Please model this.
Amino acid sequence: MSSISDKKLMSSGSSEPVNSIKPIYNNDDVFIDSSGGTWFKTGYVSDDTASYPLATIKKFGKTGLTHAINGYTGLTEDSLYIWVLAGTTVYQYDKNWTATGVSFSISSFDTNPQGIFADESHLWVIGRTSLDVIKLNKDGTAAGGNFSISTGTSVPESIAVTTDYVYIGDGNSRIKVWDKSGTHITTLATCPDVPNDLIVKDGLLWALSNYAIYIYDFTGTLLSSYPATSYCKSFISAGTDALWIVRTDNLAYLHADIIGEEKVKTHTETGYKYFLKVLD
Model:
């Protein structure tokens, strides 16, 4: 299976002396860092790749339930709320699509934001003008931790965030990876179509294109795919067994009919190994 073998998920540079041992997220036996230092794999911190745990992928079909979302440019959710980015304003809804009355402008951070992702503590937005990832508190104030993605892409479209990494889908049909310090790591995968939106669901990375859903593990292996409704723009998980998929006609369609299910072997995002530095 493919792996993120060329990503430098360690600090750049070879300041560590020969015979240093440190954890690096890499599936190769030999690792060359950005300054030419050579590292040999020598042990494990934790390694989920040996067991390849099974994941169940459920495929969802469209129901007749819809909800209008006007002028949106991004959609995300946390455990309590749905967040809609419309122009330069973020709106908060409950899980029944009732507006809570919370909204705020993010125009001071970027005049053309595109894509939004919520974790339990923060909102993450792509600035198309600045080519920055913008980290916000959930009241719209700056949280610190912004970084540029200009070295990796000039056409960002979508964003997903995990504990350690930021994933950007771009207009060249790629999913790119940064760590949260702003280091560009690698191209995780090349999608069959532009990933208009990304979500993390069931421990996997789901990408939505205009007409299909593609499901990857965190080494970039395409595990499954299936057709979605036409002209898809954004989506969120609606509990365990459903998705809301928003089309370019500004209607969110509930996909809650199980049209298929499969079990796949996956690599997870955790997989740090100990490496021993042998050469500068």
Q: What stands out?
A: DSSP finds no helices and 24 strands in the chain. The chain has a mean pLDDT of 84. The radius of gyration is 19 Å.
